[in-house]
Amino acid sequence: MKLFTLLFGLFALLATSVLAWDNEDHEIFDLVSELEASEGRGTTFYSWLDVPPTASTADIAKAYRKKSMVLHPDKNPGVKGIQERFARLGVISGILRNKEKRERYDFFFKNGVPTWRGTGYYYSRYRPGLGFVLTFLVSVTSLLQYVVQRMNYKRDLARIEHITGKAKAAAWGPKMIPLTGQRKVRVNLGEAHDGDGNVLDSKWIDMVVNGEEVYFLEPNGDQILIDASTATPPAITRTWFISLNKSLAYKVIGKKTTDDEKAGGAAAPEEDDSPQVDLTSDDSASVTGSGSEKARGGPVATSKVGGKRRKAPKKR
């Protein structure tokens, strides 16, 4: 929720910066519209004065005097609109001879002057095309997916640390002094309570602590190592767009894709009968493997990370 709030605020800030034109901007917009309506579409302040955009202030003043002699109302008696054109010439000349106003006009001259369409000004030259929109959406959604991957990775690491910490506490005691040898423990990963505080259900799971290593113990006796490598790290290559292109490329060249690749995950080995460790949001966990039952734990997992099946050394 915080992420989407941040993005919404960013887009709102960008929209505000585009729409918050000041009075000088609106003066320029109106002059551009009036100039094109009077002198022809595409006419700019520079082209009307017949000077290049790099003209100096002295050149602009000289061009203004020359143009004003042509447009002076005394020399054009009875010409319709001559008063407005002459007054407009003075305002435009004043803008181009003012450093700050000229810089502002040059910005719109180079980047496109906004056009009025009833709901506000928008850039007529920079309306995004289909390609730009698709590229933007792909980039944003891929970035968001990568951010979610990072969040899930950190969450899974925290859960792994929490679960292994409970197992070590059960094996070593409250002082957490490491003991040698292999110890089998039962760990309570959470309790469900009713409204009166009564315990409805406890989630217990068998685990083995052997030195610093912690294992999930399956009913068939197999042990699954639980450590930081159990969590799946984030990767740009596992975002949806890259995964989709990989899948399409594999179809073209005739290579089969794994279920993980189709779902936007990393490529899995062709034959992998290793169990999976399910870490749930309420700190419960379950273990599933090829041909094995689910170990005692909570409900169906919401986050899966690959576990390592490893036999713990036999207790001497």
TrEMBL record:
Compositionally biased spans, kind Polar residues: 277-291
InterPro entries: DnaJ_domain (IPR001623), DnaJ_domain_protein (IPR052606), J_dom_sf (IPR036869)
SMART domains xrefs: DnaJ
Domain J: from-to ranges: 44-109
Biased composition (Basic residues): 306-316
Taxonomic placement: Eukaryota, Fungi, Dikarya, Basidiomycota, Agaricomycotina
PANTHER family given in the database record: DNAJ HOMOLOG SUBFAMILY C MEMBER 1 (PTHR44653:SF2)
Compartment list: Endomembrane system
Transmembrane segments: 129-148
Membrane topology: Single-pass membrane protein
GO CC, one annotated term: endomembrane system
Disordered, as annotated region: 258-316
Organism of this sequence: Candolleomyces aberdarensis
Source species, domain of life: Eukaryota
UniProt signal peptide: 1-20
Main location: membrane
Full protein name: J domain-containing protein
Keywords: Membrane, Signal, Transmembrane, Transmembrane helix
